[in-house]
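Weekend entry, working from home. Most of the wet-lab plans are on hold until the incubator is repaired, so I used the time to fold the two sequences that have been sitting in the queue since the last round of cloning. Logging both here for the record. First:
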Amino acid sequence: MRTHRSPRDLSNLPYAHHLEPFTREVQRKEVYEWIHIDSQDMDDSDRDMSRFIESAFSSVNFNGGRMQHGRFDTVWMHNVRLLGADLTSTTWLDTECRSSLLAGTQLHGAELQRTVFHQCKLDSVNLRGATLRDVAFIDCSLSDVDFGGATLKRVSFPGTSLEQVDFTKGSLAQVDLREVTALGLASGAEDLRGAIINTRQLLDLAPDLAQHAGLTVKDD
């Protein structure tokens, strides 16, 4: 399983000395490198296929708007709010997201690799059909998050609460759930095939697993 990184401050990024303040409007299909977007509202705009490389976002609000097929490559985010934003089929690589809120965010078909979320809240986020590899959700809260049909490999959730999370028809491999603070599923326990759980969690899931297997459990 991946090693859990501690959250980094902006000044600790290896490319911090390259960053330049960026105050212009982000345009679709453009490539942006070494920019720092700070304290901006990026509302209801079309930024499809825009790409960010070794860049930073702090205190940025995405209220609605589109960034389909965009790319975050070695990007740092802090106190970012993605509210109803459409990030369908985006790519996230070596990206860190801290103390941020994703609510009603569309990430259908997204690809996340070597990405970590620290102390983030994900509420009603659509990750159906997404691919997550070497991803960690650390001290986060996930509520009504849909991983239906998604592929998860080497994904961990230390210190994270899962409430009404849906793994229906997902493909799980080395998905570590042992350190979650709550394991609330919207789908059946059988959809956790390929996950790693602890003994206590197994006992909690036993009635659901027995029902799925067609077992009747009686003590008399």
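Second, folded right after the first finished:
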Amino acid sequence: MSTSIQEEKLAEKLQTVLADKIVNSQIQYGELTIRIHARDILSVSKLLRDESEFSFDTLIDVCGIDYSTYGENLAAKHGLGDKRFGVIYHLLSVSFNHRLRIRVLADNNDYPVVDSVTEIWPAANWFEREAFDLYGIVFDGHPDLRRLLTDYGFIGNPFRKDFPLTGYIEMRYDENQKRVIYQPVTIEPREITPHVIREEYYGDLES
């Protein structure tokens, strides 16, 4: 059975079982993606893991995404509306060798919150911490939600599209205080334009 047929059959089963919990679905590059409401992530995840016809026993990855510069055409195509932050889950069924991608969108752009799935797939623990750290997405019910990749004194979320390239603060060792200190960034914002030098008639095959 070809991959596309497998994904189509899986999509039909999911549509039958999940019904109105699926906002939309698509098969692209041989992979099935379904979008569900954020409020349903726990119930859907538990069903996908426990139902014998799905058996998605393995969580491969969880990642955050900031759609703020996605563009009107793509936002309309994927039905994003005015939602800015999303969470993407990659699942694997070892029994059936099926893969599934789930997309949920946080309802609040100012304070994005999605339920944690650590009680269903413990592997989500550090993935959710990473998304919290880099995107500021809060995972309700997470047992230990704190920064993972940035420093404890870090300000902001560096993977958000509006986060400045230089950050907000910098740290250095202060000789007078004999310790590491934090201070506002001292780098002046500037636009860097590369200076390109080419030989005369460069690339002209007739010369």
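Plan for Monday: verify the second prediction. Helices lie at 3-18, 41-50, 72-77, 124-135.
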